[in-house]
Amino acid sequence: VLENALHGNLLRHGLDDDSMLDTKQIYECICNAIAMEEAYEETAAVAVAAQTTNEMQLQRFPMFMRFYFHAYCSNKQQIVIDLKYIQNFYEEFNSIFICSVNKSLLKYDQLIPLFPNCTQMITANERNKKTILISTEWFIELIAMMNEINRSKLDVITIINPNIICTNDELDVFRRQYEKKQWLLNHQVHNTIPTLSLSRIKT
User: Fold this and answer.
1) Which of 166, 76, 73, 80 is nearest to 121 (CA)?
2) Is residue 136 within 8 Å of residue 149, measured between CB atoms?
3) Residue 58: C-alpha distances to residues 47, 54, 62, 111, 132 (Å)
4) What is the pTM (predicted TM-score) of this model?
5) pLDDT digits over 115-151, tens only?
6) CB of 122 within 8 A of CB of 160?
7) 113 three-state secondary structure
8) Fewer CB in a 10 Å sphere around the end CB: N or C, the chain?
9) Helix, strand, or coil here: 188?
10) Full 3-state SS string of 47-103
């Protein structure tokens, strides 16, 4: 559904450059695509009884748009997702990108198929102005995604301005658990802004 919604607005938003993906831009495309789809339904009668709903939606967009959408997503090596835009302005899409329990954790296992060649995913909150809550449950739920992540090209997961509410002992435990999954957990300050990063261990 997300993929179909994005198809119709690629060229209008100039999504063929090499800049980082902007969360607001993603959802503006989705909303505009939905509006375009509704207008299309008034002027086009595309209905085949034997087809599924998803197949019918896909056929509403020309082949060249689907091609450019896949090409754009496949070319992205770094994306930035800002939680503010998702949580405050696009609540209807929370279930697509945000975990149901930990609202500060992205569904990396869902983003990976959409951006198959992405090597770094960055999470921010109001352009780094607000903190991102990182709890023990956050670490546990992310560990559950690691097998899927390990089958992808994703090498770095970065959280900008995290508010970590774990103890040092708990962090040490999580570090060892992530190392078993071939990932290094690092908490540092970069240009006065704290960051939490997980980097794949190269073998």
Assistant:
1) 80
2) no
3) 12, 6, 9, 19, 36
4) 0.70
5) 999 999 999 999 888 999 999 999 999 999 999 999 9
6) yes
7) helix
8) C
9) strand
10) CCCCCCHHHHHHHCCCHHHHHHHHHHHHHCCEEEEEHHHHHHHCHHHHHHHECCCCC
